[in-house]
């Protein structure tokens, strides 16, 4: 739980007493490689804070083609946010790509933390804002940039993920074929 406290205190310093209460809202879950935290159609019970491992959040289109919406690594939050915030069913999958650990938080817990601790409300607002900004940047890149530009931006922002995620998933995330990704990779060397 020390990692949780460090993560929170990057934004909102908290006292020992506050943390003793805050940590009771989280549960630790160990996750194996290729294990799913969420399937399409599941009730979305949790938002996850990644402590260890790499995850992909994706959906399948009507033809069964996979579309990766997000990768998540240490200190990143993930879930099917539409299902989580509306308390409906998932339209996304969350899969673990490397053995890991996550902390699970319910919407009820998140709301209670936010109402009881102004510091936590601030923390969640900052995290949500940062996620929204990242999502808008991703959409902008997908709509108005070339595959080369998307590749360069991804490799600049996430050089560690370039080494840890299979190339086929990076290609899916960038919206290019595996062959195109190989050419892009060769062009940057």
From TrEMBL:
Cyclic nucleotide-binding domain segment(s): 29-109
Lineage start: Bacteria, Pseudomonadati, Bacteroidota, Flavobacteriia, Flavobacteriales
Pfam families cross-referenced by the UniProt entry: cNMP_binding (PF00027)
Protein name: Crp/Fnr family transcriptional regulator
């Amino acid at each position: 739980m020390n990692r949780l406290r460090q993560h929170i205190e990057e934004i909102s310093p908290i006292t020992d007493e506050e943390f003793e209460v805050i940590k009771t809202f989280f549960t630790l879950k160990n996750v194996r490689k290729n294990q799913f935290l969420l399937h399409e159609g599941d009730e979305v019970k949790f938002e996850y804070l990644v402590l260890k491992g790499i995850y992909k959040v994706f959906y399948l289109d009507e033809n069964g083609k996979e579309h990766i919406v997000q990768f998540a690594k240490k200190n990143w939050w993930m879930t099917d946010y539409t299902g989580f915030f509306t308390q409906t069913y998932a339209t996304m999958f969350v899969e673990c790509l490397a053995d890991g650990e996550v902390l699970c938080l319910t919407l009820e817990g998140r709301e209670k933390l936010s109402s009881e601790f102004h510091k936590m409300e601030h923390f969640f607002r900052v995290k949500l804002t940062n996620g929204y900004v990242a999502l808008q940047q991703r959409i902008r890149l997908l709509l108005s940039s070339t595959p080369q530009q998307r590749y360069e931006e991804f490799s600049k922002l996430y050089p560690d993920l370039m080494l840890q995620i299979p190339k086929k998933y990076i290609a899916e995330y960038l919206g290019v074929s595996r062959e195109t990704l190989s050419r892009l990779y060769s062009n940057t060397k």
